[in-house]
Specification:
282 residues; alpha/beta; Rossmann fold; 2 domains; 8 strands
Amino acid sequence: MNRTVFFVSESTGITAETLGHSLLSQFDTVNFEQVYMPYINTELRAQALTQRMAEAADRDGARPIVFATMLNHEIRDILKGGNCFYVELFEVFVGPLSAELGVPPSLKSGQSHAITKPSYYTKRIEAINFAMANDDGIRPDNFHRADVVLTGVSRSGKTPTCLYLAMHYGLRSANYPITEEDFERGDLPQLLYDCRHKLFALTIEPQRLQLIREERRPGSGYASLKRCQDDIKQAQKMYKRLQVPVLNTTTQSIEEISSQIIKMLKDNLDGGAASGGKTAVI
């Protein structure tokens, strides 16, 4: 089954896309062609979009699905009048929430991604800059300034996880790749032992690691299955010696790995507050 899905908004469309993707993930037997349509903020643009919906319906033999965050009722009515299955996400939640709070909504578009809290926005930008400047162990002397430090073998997912933690949570994130020297020595540097309270290790199944490395260096010894198996085996021994949490990135997304890290950091923070100890502040 093929269905076209439009993510529509009079602003960025990030909310419509995020919530829409979450709902579509429950229907993995359907092939969705996804169309991202931000800034549909005039009646003329809305009318042009209904034409695209009609074309999609003719092509698929079924009306397209529209996930929208549309506060303008005139534009919303135009879209609803098109040949589509229309889901207005704000309509589902804002009305009942307003009734519960006893406060009318502001009905301003783009609020969820606007710079409503400049201090937090600045913190996120600084965290992103920190993650980029402290990638791949470039500045191990900065690990004491990091909120979280990741370690793992090459291509286990350290860099994208650090950037996600910085972008979405404003955490200063650094990472340390296990090197040939570490494997030869059979242990990790003392600086990682010094930051164990905020250190997380990433692991991955050798077969999956081989596929990732093969894309980077096809046919190399670096990408061989034996090399991947040896690297992971040695790394696991180091993690056991460090006694730090180990997260498997084989089948988990960056979002899932990050959420686990956030939870463990918060647990550490709560435990530190109760015992008077120091932990990373989120």
